[in-house]
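User: Here's a chain of 297 residues. Predict its fold as tokens.
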Amino acid sequence: MSTARQLARRRRAASWQRGWREFRRHRSGVAGLVILVVFVLLALLAPLIADGDGLSVTRATGGVLEPPSTSYPLGTDDNGRSVLTLLIWGARISLLVGLLATLISMGIGTLVGLFSGYFGGWPGAVLFRLTEWFLVIPFLPLAIVLASVLGRSLVNIVIVIGVTSWPGTALLIRSQTLSIKERAYLERARGLGAGHGHLLRRHVLPNVVPMVFANTTLTVAVAILSETTLSFLGLGDPTRVSWGTMLQDAFQVGAITTGSWWFIVPPGLCVVLVVLSFTLIGQALESVLNPRLRDSR
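Assistant: Prediction complete.
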């Protein structure tokens, strides 16, 4: 038994090494990974890089919309707070919302896709129609309605984004499941008496996990954009600083018309860079995990 486990571990290690070698061949994917690591470190080390007291309006020491200077490298906002401090701490909320919302979206989408693709009859049809119904409804109006009903909080924003962004994943997993369940090894397992739970857990799910993993990076980008959009519309958590709330504040005080570019450009640029990094990583992973795409290069 131990020899079989050691062999399985060696195979997994060799598979990870092959995947990493293939990933490193994609320069765009490596560039996206470097950008993402920088932002993740920025978010994790925020308490060491920037004093959290700088987020408080009552403890602001700068002037109103001061341009960049030696004291404030990215200037100040309309409350006299350092834009750089807001930017660093805002990375935590934007990345956290994106990751948590993606976990919810991936969980719902994977389960719905698996069950709708594996089970025939009315259960699969109902789940498929439910997925289509969510796809037909425009994402942004639905998210706005849900956020308005649930209220302005970080948890509610995560829930809203998670429960409105899963249909694409569900369709992707469903199509993959439909292909897998017709394969010969599943028929042999059924013939040996394997039940639905065993087949889904041991045969179908492991084969769709790479697709889920590759799609996760793309969904995180969508979730971060969604959080930014909802916060910009005034539906974010008013007690938390994120890049979206920074953009909303900049718009409300007229940062564009007053020429206060330092208040609106940095958070917008950070959103673009993080979304771009996840997109580049997702494209590289898709090529690594999909043999047909890898062989066509």
